[in-house]
Fold each of these.
Amino acid sequence: MIRAVGAKFITSSANISQAPDFASSEIVFLGRSNVGKSSLINAIANHNGLAKSSSTPGKTRLINFFEIELMEDDDTKDKLKVMFVDLPGFGYAKVAKTMHEEWKKSLDEFLKFRSNIKLFVHLIDARHFDLDIDTNVNSYINSFLRADQKVLNLYTKADKLNQSSRSAVMKFDPKGILVSTLNKNNIDKARDKIINLALGRE
Ligand SMILES: Nc1nc2c(ncn2[C@@H]2O[C@H](COP(=O)(O)OP(=O)(O)OP(=O)(O)O)[C@@H](O)[C@H]2O)c(=O)[nH]1
Ligand SMILES: [Mg+2]
């Protein structure tokens, strides 16, 4: 098991040209507004309050970089360092139209051209796991995915599902992982998977 032993906010950028090159592997968390991106970053980083979460959609408005330090539980290897990137949610309509277009363009450029990105973590609300918007996001990412990049689907707010709904999600996407930041379900499993995929170990 991999443990998160340190986390700190590094910087925010409005777009790709403002974002410094940190020379570490980046893991982006993307998904609809309010799906639980910031909460999940905090749970995976084991650091409450690191990324700002809120019940009001549209909380995250910039590209936020967090440096995460990790250790393998079972040995004395060096610490691992990766960058978590928290993004504004998509599908959030309550911002001015011009601003919305601006965000979309910035996000699109960042996702397509940011060379340090090694893993796209796509968060999907487990209660609404087959929305067109999420299917479209998966095709969108796959349309520019490089050979050194991976995608992982995480299904959030699993605490709100009963057992048969959980089974339906896993049947729909056997490679996905159901997670809950509320009861910490599968957080350790998701962390292991995220780090191993981002570091090209699987
Ligand atoms: N029940 C439950 N609620 C959750 C879970 N994760 C997040 N939430 C709640 O969902 C709301 C949104 O969480 P955020 O982490 O801010 O979501 P976000 O995707 O970062 O939202 P934006 O930044 O607006 O795009 C908050 O009220 C959280 O408390 C979960 O696992 N279970
Ligand atoms: Mg957020």
Amino acid sequence: MTTAYITHEDCLLHNMGPDHPESPVRLQAIRKVLERTGLMDHMDQLTAVPASAEQIQLAHAKLHQKKLEMKVPREGVVYTDEDTALCPHSLDAAHLAAGGVILATNRVLSGKAQNAFCAVRPPGHHAEYNLPMGFCFYNNVAIGACHALLQEGIERVAVLDFDVHHCNGTVDIFKDRPEVLVCSTFQYPYYPERYCEIDRPNIVNCPIAAHSDNSVFRKAIEERWLPALEAHKPDIIFISAGFDAHKEDPMADLNLDEEDYRWVTQQIMQMAEKHSHKRIVSVLEGGYSPVALAFSVQAHLEVLAGF
Ligand SMILES: [Zn+2]
């Protein structure tokens, strides 16, 4: 079975300035490693198409979309919060990022791919129903999950997020939708400090103290995520694949490495095999050391592609 690799070169045009960590270099580094190792040749490479306004509004207020459209500058950058900025190409890239996840979902649900990885930016998991934040404008993974739930035979989905930051946006969008299980591991206390303590049966928040070793992460997956997945039995699993909990990542203070990403992907694969017809759509979120990011994505994809 095939692993689809979905991206678009215009995702590189979103540029928040030369010193911003969420830079086009991230996607270039991933491509370089996947090409050099030959892994790219073993995947079905597809080009993202932009999400429509209706598709964006599966997870966002119409007003959210309108406000962003009004803010796009003709040149330079305009900040939507202290660390998130729009350049003239940002929203086009954001539509491609969300559309890439919809394409991935369609490929997996139609059986044309067993699973898919979306190498897209801007990332999405901090974007709430009516709020852009934390480098995110549209919640790509949430839009894909909402799209999946509209398809015949898809009644329950799971979104699994191992980015070092808590997925406040994904929780905001799904907190009152019990058909969506959201599991998150994240450094705590740490940005963004929203929805970390929410109490809902479909939200599994696993805070991890800074400087914890990888056994704490693995224990959270084994003791919290896996039992929740066993109970939820999702028809398809989405992954918010952020790699900024890597020990070499400059942004945060957890101590994972490539082998932890390989391990967690294996755990998710086993669950998908058991409950979800092997269907997985993985979506890039954070990861700000280009080298650590690229090697982590390689480990993640080696498992997804069955290497
Ligand atoms: Zn992050």
Amino acid sequence: MEIDGFRGRLITAGHADYDAARSVWNGSVDRRPRLIARCAGTADVAAAVRFARDHDLEIAVRGGGHNVAGTAVCDEGIVIDLSAMRSVRVDPAGRTVRVQGGALWGDVDEASQAHGLATTGGIVSHTGVAGLTLGGGIGFLMRRYGLTVDSLLAAEVVTADGGVVRASADDHPDLLWALRGGGGNFGVVTSFRFALHPVGPTVLAGPVLWAADDTADVLRFYRDFAAEAPDELGTVVRLGTVPPLPAVPEELHWRPAVAVVCCHAGAVRDGERAVRALRRFGRPLADLVAPKPYVAHQRSTDDTVPHGWHYYWKATDLAGLSDHAIAVIADHAYEAGSPRSYAVMFHMGGAVARLAGDTTAYAARDVAHNINIDAVWLPEESGERAAAETAWARRFLHALQPHRVGSVYVNFLDADDGTSRVREAYGERVYRRLADVKVAYDPGNVFHLNKNIRPGATSPAVVGPSAGSPGRHRA
Ligand SMILES: Cc1cc2nc3c(=O)[nH]c(=O)nc-3n(C[C@H](O)[C@H](O)[C@H](O)COP(=O)(O)OP(=O)(O)OC[C@H]3O[C@@H](n4cnc5c(N)ncnc54)[C@H](O)[C@@H]3O)c2cc1C
């Protein structure tokens, strides 16, 4: 297969790199595209879109390849693969950064931190910038600097007709609004421009860990602690067995524990004050909070979620951490069969909540916490283990039903989360506005292997898988 004028690499079955090129972060995803177009630049992306349309091929778009639903790869069709487009250019004076559409958060953090700057990114450095940004972007810096999309100033986009447009506050503002949370529905983003903010480069960060038996007490304390925390303090709670990381004392490896992972995006001295009460609560197994480079903190849990393991997620936003919700979490978090499975809760609020709900397509800004239940098993453990871990995640989510607010972070949805959950992510008003923008930029739903927004959809559509389904389901 040839694409006229294509400068990057075209990889097909039988090529030595085919299996590596079609694999994504979630090792349970096993799809065989007809063609992987590893693009070298914007012109390649545009050529690949036109080629796919001319040959009636399904299009999957790959940024970092991290989406748990595996939407970055398809069966039969073409993967427009941006993984070779990872350049990051910082303008320290203007405090902005230009990032190509296949970059990872580690690339951005490293380049920006060389100037003491950062923007809100994910908490694992090998996550892709594109998919994370297009879903909203939550992370340790969000309470101080907002979601990733709150720092998104502009984007270069290859649209469904193979054209190139720039979305900014002045050009195609409707498109910029939709890109700020509406996912990969509106085109292929070849580059992003973000605002940067002063961070570190040394920050006070790390986890405090307590025994699993103390979970309910710790979470009750944490609920009040988090509610009073300054915006500079980002915290993420991890519940599960302790991963065997070199930074964690060996006697704690694989022990069930609750960890509150902190990152204070201000002066270290202020951070010490902000986390003092947390460190003193109860009897921690370990207190690993210390001044460290922000970049090192952002990489600190990379090895706990490597590429190739099998993953299945269930997620929801939470109405709050009531005593009953805490009891449900404490009862279910350690019931997984695999020592690799865990749950993670992000504390939202701060700058995220200060913008109105429809400022960006990421809408659920008044949520205090969300939870992502991550079932994990090894490739050689498939079969019964996969079924047991999957059942655990579903059971856990089901038990949380009374505590759900009716919204969910779109980037945490898995392949079996149907159309109704995509609508849940946005709420009806924002979903409808997204559906209108979709009509303007992709009326034929060319980009539909994603958390799909149906063009012009006004009423709840048939409930069914919306992401990762290898079959065609254009509107
Ligand atoms: C270990 C891990 C940690 C995570 N931590 C966080 C976190 O801290 N905060 C957070 O907010 N999320 C987090 N996530 C979720 C993450 O935001 C999503 O998985 C996101 O989809 C990853 O982006 P990606 O580019 O790697 O995805 P990919 O799998 O490459 O792409 C996912 C979808 O995004 C779209 N897409 C990708 N690239 C482009 C592009 N250039 N142009 C247009 N559309 C594109 C496509 O629709 C594609 O199907 C995490 C995920 C993992 C696996």
